[in-house]
Design goal:
Order of helices and strands: HHHHHHH
Mean pLDDT: 92
Low-confidence stretches: none
Strand content: under 5%
Oligomer: single chain
Transmembrane segments: 37-58, 65-87, 93-110, 117-136, 148-172
Helix content: over 70%
Keywords: Membrane, Transmembrane, Transmembrane helix
Distance between the termini: 17 Å
Pfam families: ABC_cobalt (PF09819)
Organism: Microbacterium pumilum
InterPro entries: ABC_thiamin-permease_prd (IPR017195)
Radius of gyration: 17 Å
Length: 183
């Protein structure tokens, strides 16, 4: 007897579609990250914040366990197909951010889907990402005002991309995605 999966084929296909779209966006952000880091490093957090997008859209649209992590990993594979050299970065970021999003949703037993939960998740992701990048980029080289803006944008970036993700999920829901079926 075949054991029934917790995630339906429809759910997995929806995760795949979101992941492909988000992976293309992430590859574009990856292309921008070099010039932004070199020319205007203070706003890098806005670019890096795009990595919350696949998990936000998947969780808000599907409201099921594991969809953020699955969608993040698919997005990472798509972005890696565009920039194979960065596969480690994309997979690592997917595991980190997707894992954080899943963990925060699990704390509410996958029953809390109000917008504040997504924004709280975005702030936590922003802080967790900002701390190691602060040290890796030696942000103390900036004047104090720029250090404050630099860190703030690592938190504001994921918050703005979360707002975009919630808007995308709402639009998909109005369009009839996902269809509610069995499993």
């Amino acid at each position: 007897m075949v054991q029934r999966s917790r995630l339906s084929t429809s759910t997995l296909l929806t995760c795949a579609a979101i992941g492909v779209a988000a992976g293309v966006v992430q590859a574009g952000a990856g292309a921008l990250s070099g010039p932004v880091s070199a020319g205007l490093p203070i706003v890098y957090g806005l670019v890096l914040g795009v990595h919350v997008l696949p998990g936000v859209v998947a969780q808000d649209l599907l409201r099921k366990p594991w969809v953020a992590l699955i969608t993040h990993l698919i997005a990472a594979l798509v972005a890696s197909a565009v920039v194979p050299l960065w596969i480690g970065r994309y997979i690592g970021t997917a595991l980190l951010i997707g894992g954080l999003q899943e963990g925060i949703a699990a704390l509410g037993r996958y029953r809390r889907w109000e917008p504040w939960r997504f924004f709280l998740s975005a702030v936590i992701v922003g802080v967790v990402v900002a701390v190691p990048i602060w040290f890796a980029t030696d942000a103390t080289r900036f004047p104090l005002w720029a250090q404050i803006v630099y860190i703030a944008l690592f938190i504001i970036g994921p918050v703005l991309w979360t707002a975009a993700g919630l808007a995308i999920a709402a639009a998909l829901r109005r369009a009839g995605v996902p269809r509610q079926g069995r499993g």
